[in-house]
Design brief:
Layout (H helix, E strand, L loop, with lengths): L1 E5 L5 H14 L3 E4 L7 H11 L4 E4 L2 E2 L5 H14 L4 E6 L3 H4 L10 H17 L2 E5 L4 E5 L8 E4 L4 H10 L2 E5 L3 H18 L6 E10 L4 H14 L7 H10 L4 H4 L1 E3 L1 H10 L7 E6 L3 H14 L1
Parallel strand pairs: 1-2, 1-12, 2-3, 3-5, 4-5, 5-8, 8-9, 9-10, 10-11, 10-12
Antiparallel strand pairs: 6-7
Helix pairs in contact: 1-2, 2-3, 3-5, 5-6, 6-7, 11-12
C-alpha cells in the first residue's frame, strides 16, 4: 500500500509549495481537491513544472460542469506539461451543488457518469470519439501529444462502483471505513473490472489524520474538532450512506486519532482491506498536524 497526502490551499503558490514539500519528504503522490479555491488542473500544470517525480491526483474534478471533451483536452494538456504524472480523479459532486449552485439537473447520475466515461476514455486514449447518448453527445477529434492519464472515479455506491470497474482505472474514496472498503468497495469494483477484462482497479482512500499525545483529553478534543470540521460529510447523502454502512455516527468516528503508534497501526491495518493507496489529510493544531506528517513519513 502506497502512502500519499491530501493537500489544499487557497493559492497556486501554496499548492506548489505543498507539492514540493511532499516530494522532498518522499511521498509518491499528492491528491488535491477541486472545491472553491484554485482550479486544480491548472494548479497542477503550474506546480508540476517546478516539482519533479511526485504523482499529482485530482480528488476530484466534478463532471457536470465540464463536457468530457473539454476535460479530456485539459487533462492531456496538463499531463503533457508535467511529463505524464497526472491521475485524473473525477466525480459527480452532490445534488445540492449540481442543482442548487449550478442549476444543472442531477437526474440519473449513474447514466450521466457511464456516458461520461464512455466518451472520456476514447478521447484520452485514441484522441477521437463518435458518441450519441441519452444525456451526452461527443463527435470530436483532439490533438494533444500526451499519454492518457489514469482515470479514477469517486465511486461509493454499488451501481457506480460497477460502472467504474468496467470503464475506469479505480476509485477514490472519502468517508469510507475499513469494513466497507473490504466487504463492499473492493469486491464490487474488482468483480466488475474482471468481468470487463480490465486490470485490477486501484483503490485510493483519504482519511482525516490527527496524531495527539495519546491522552484521553487530547483525543476527545481532536474528535470534537473532527466532528465540527467534517460535519458536512455526515449530511451529504453519498457520504452518509458510507458512514451508515460502517456503523459510524459521524465523520469523527472515521478520523484516525491517537498517538503516533496507534494511528500508524490503524493505517497499516488498512492494507488488508485491499486499499492500494492511503492519503492522509492532517488536521488539528499546528503541532498535531506536524506530528501527523512525521508519522506518515515514518510509514513511507
Amino acid at each position: 500500500m502506497k502512502i500519499g497526502t491530501f493537500s489544499f490551499s487557497e493559492s497556486v503558490e501554496g499548492l506548489t509549495e505543498m507539492a514540493r514539500t511532499a516530494n522532498e519528504q518522499g511521498f509518491g503522490s499528492i491528491w488535491i481537491p477541486q472545491v472553491f479555491g484554485p482550479d486544480t488542473l491548472t494548479a497542477i500544470a503550474v506546480a508540476g513544472q517546478s516539482v519533479p517525480d511526485i504523482t499529482f491526483g485530482t480528488a476530484v474534478v466534478p463532471t457536470y460542469p465540464r463536457h468530457p471533451q473539454m476535460l479530456a483536452q485539459q487533462a492531456l494538456t496538463v499531463n503533457q506539461a508535467i511529463g505524464g504524472r497526472l491521475v485524473l480523479g473525477i466525480g459527480p459532486s452532490h445534488k445540492p451543488v449540481v442543482e442548487g449552485m449550478w442549476g444543472i439537473s442531477f437526474d440519473k447520475p449513474i447514466r450521466h457518469l457511464r456516458e461520461y466515461l464512455e466518451i472520456l476514455g476514447p478521447l484520452l486514449h485514441d484522441k477521437r470519439v463518435s458518441y450519441g447518448g441519452d444525456a451526452l453527445t461527443a463527435r470530436a477529434e483532439i490533438s494533444v501529444d500526451a499519454p492518457a492519464p489514469k482515470v479514477m472515479m469517486a465511486a461509493l455506491g454499488p451501481q457506480l462502483l460497477k460502472v467504474t470497474g468496467r470503464l475506469a482505472d479505480g476509485t477514490i474514496l472519502w468517508m469510507t471505513g475499513p469494513k466497507t472498503i473490504a466487504e463492499h468497495t473492493v469486491p464490487t469494483i474488482t468483480e466488475a473490472a474482471e468481468a470487463a477484462g480490465r486490470p485490477a482497479p486501484e483503490i485510493m482512500a483519504g482519511f482525516p489524520v490527527c496524531v495527539t499525545d495519546g491522552s484521553d483529553a487530547a483525543n476527545q478534543a481532536a474528535r470534537e474538532r473532527a466532528a465540527e470540521e467534517y460535519a458536512i460529510y455526515g449530511q451529504l447523502p453519498s457520504y452518509r450512506a458510507m458512514l451508515d454502512r460502517e456503523g459510524y455516527e459521524g465523520p469523527a468516528d472515521l478520523a484516525l486519532i491517537g498517538s503516533a503508534g496507534e494511528v500508524a497501526d490503524r493505517i497499516q491495518a488498512l492494507e488488508a482491506t485491499g486499499l492500494t493507496t492511503f492519503a492522509g489529510a492532517e488536521f488539528g493544531t499546528r503541532e498535531q498536524r506536524e506530528a501527523s506528517r512525521e508519522m506518515l513519513i515514518g510509514l513511507l
